[in-house]
Amino acid sequence: MKQLRVIGIDPGLSGGIAVKDYQHPVKVYKMPRGVEAMKRFFTELQTGKDIIFLEKVMVMRNDQMEPGKAFGIEKMLKGYNEMRTVLLMLGFLLIDVYPVSWQSYLHTRIKGKKEAKKDRKNRYKRIAQERYPEVKATLWNSDALLILEYGRKKLKYEPEAIKMAAIKSHQLQKWEQLQLRIYGNDYTLRNE
């Protein structure tokens, strides 16, 4: 999709935002803190030709067993829900992505091996740096860069899957409006 801007978001407190359109190199931003900061940031960023891939935050059953971890995840959930609300209110086409989905799709998961979080994050940083050498991949932006990569590949190779995700999240009209803005009366998706 030639004029579309793809945005990958890791919504954690120390997360990041990666933005790529087809005329400019990737840009990365630190996560804005608070609803007003999010609103300002995304209002300035918005072009009307944006699709956002947002990593879904959720509580796992075993997270409830550790009170400190559960508290941290509850804070992350609050931030995720605030971000999601702001993005939808501003009219963005928003696709929620489970961490396991983008990690499996990009073959970044190591199957059958328990990996320490620090080791996994450093490995993701190396992968993000290889895929986007024009930016400095860091621990705060590497997940966002990889979510961006996931979104770009899904749009290029599996656009119907994105359309189905839009339908599932009641955003089909936004998907069709986005296509109309980019291609006029030609509704078919095109690759880069």
- Low-pLDDT segments, ≥5 res: 185-192
CATH top-level class: Alpha Beta
Order of helices and strands: EEEHEHEHHHHH
Q: Which topology does CATH recognise?
A: Nucleotidyltransferase, domain 5
Which percent band covers the strand fraction? 5-15%
CATH H level, superfamily name: Ribonuclease H-like superfamily/Ribonuclease H
Structural class from helices and strands? Answer: alpha/beta
Shape: globular
Strand order of the largest sheet: 3-2-1-4-5
Give an account of the 3D structure:
By secondary structure, the chain is of the alpha/beta class. The chain has one domain: Nucleotidyltransferase, domain 5 (2-Layer Sandwich), CATH 3.30.420.10. It is 49% helix and 13% strand. It has seven helices and five strands. It has helices at 35-45, 67-89, 99-105, 117-131, 142-157, 159-168, 172-183, and strands at residues 5-9, 16-20, 27-30, 50-55, 93-97. It has a five-stranded mixed beta sheet with strand order 3-2-1-4-5, with helices on both faces. Helix 5 (142-157) packs across helix 6. The longest helix is centred in the middle third of the chain and has 23 residues, at 67-89. The chain is globular and about 45 Å long. It starts with a strand and ends in a 9-residue tail after the last helix. Residues 185-192 have low confidence and may be disordered.
